[in-house]
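To fix ideas, we quote verbatim one protein's residues and fold tokens.
>
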Amino acid sequence: MKEIIMVKKRKADGEPCRKCLQVEEQLRDRGLLDRIDRIVWAVENEPASEGMVMAERLGVEIAPFFIVSENNQEKVYLSSLQFIKKELEPGAENRKAPEVPPAVELADELAGKSPLTVIDRALSLYGEECAISFSGAEDVALIEMAVQTGKPFSVFSLDTGRLHPETYRFIDRVRKHYGITIRIASPDREALEAFVGEKGLYSFYEDGHKECCTVRKVEPLKRVLSGYKAWITGQRKDQNPSTRGLLEMVQKDVFTGKGGGNLMKFNPLADWTQAQVWSFIRSHGVPYNELHDRGYVSIGCEPCTRPQQPGEHERASRWWWEEGTKRECGLHK
């Protein structure tokens, strides 16, 4: 006989964790909550509580999680999306995909809509074939919103090999916090070795960052995007008005998508400000890079990023030795 258990966390003050409530609401909205046979509580500071005992036995550190017991075997799901897909809605991946409107029609449809609405629409159309590009604070806000939709999605991150140690820890913290898989894309080894062998490790201080970014970021991005039909970015118009001031909410990208087809690009935060992003992060308990608490605003590779100086625009701390209109790495055309 099959039994499905949902393990929720109750904090020391008696309140359930916010993420547990969100997942429970997702199940309820989709008419799936009654498929859960038992709900077990893991009570903070009470190691003998049933849920804490289960978590300890299974080596699980996040909540909620799901246990499916059948024929004396157990399967554990840390991701609610994977749990729903595999256990509650099997075969969902074989359903006919909705028809995708042209980019211009989608742009008109979503103009002025909230970021959550934009993300929900993108995932309704593409599901796991739509990937969130994750590196900074804006991107984790997008992941939080994607989780709130209850729909499947993918996440990738570019590891240039030159990131801050704090950024690597941040990536792993986000992975654990949301119970998601983050695809890590690295530069092509031969291309990187050839570049470094010819130019050294710090040539960008002398002749600009474009060549280094092409090897470490743009080419890996193109390789990753070739496996998806759409992607979601954390770009905002006010990040750099000279290069992003005309940013659209939805656009057809210049890069090629899955199967050589067109790639749709969604920029849900295009109309948001930096203040709105951080208000969302604080109010929803979203993880963020610890470097932000040390004066860093826009965070890239370690040699190319410094803390923001008084009165500077947020992108001024990136490639600070170059002229302001050149401070893009080539990921966004």
